[in-house]
Amino acid sequence: MASQDQARRAAETKGRTEEKANQMMGSVGDKAQAGKDKTADTAQAAKEKTASAAQAAKERTANTAQAAKDKTADTAQAAKEKTKSAAQTTKEKASDTAARTGEMAHEGKDKAAGILQDTGEKMKQMAQSTADAVKSTLGMAKNDEEEDSPAPFKTRGRDY
């Protein structure tokens, strides 16, 4: 019986050893699964964080690009308005200059016409005076013209 008792104890010990080994293996498997799950969770969090950072960078890039586009459009619009304003100012100055030039030309024309009129009148008067003097000298003057002409010089009672 001793050998049966030893065999039984050996079988019981073997059974307990196998059970403990199975428990340890289950515990190690559970720990391995927990480690695997934790690694997967960490990897998923890193993936989400990377995707979030990439999306934020994409949005910042898009916002920066849009801001640059808006600024370029604003600058172009300001340049367009400035050019339009400068063109309008130049047009107004040219119009004012043309109007002043026209006025000055008209004034010059009027002045020249006045000078020519005065010159013509003077020439006419000079010609008339010359004609009257010649008529008077030749004795062809009319009576009313003689009255208008100056009296001859008198020196010591003589007419010259």
TrEMBL record:
Residues 51-67 have a biased composition (Low complexity). GO terms for cellular component: nucleus. Residues 1-160 are annotated as: Disordered. Residues 1-21, 33-50, 68-95, 103-112 have a biased composition (Basic and acidic residues). Gene3D superfamilies: 6.10.140.1430. It comes from the Eukaryota. This is Uncharacterized protein. It comes from Cannabis sativa (Hemp).
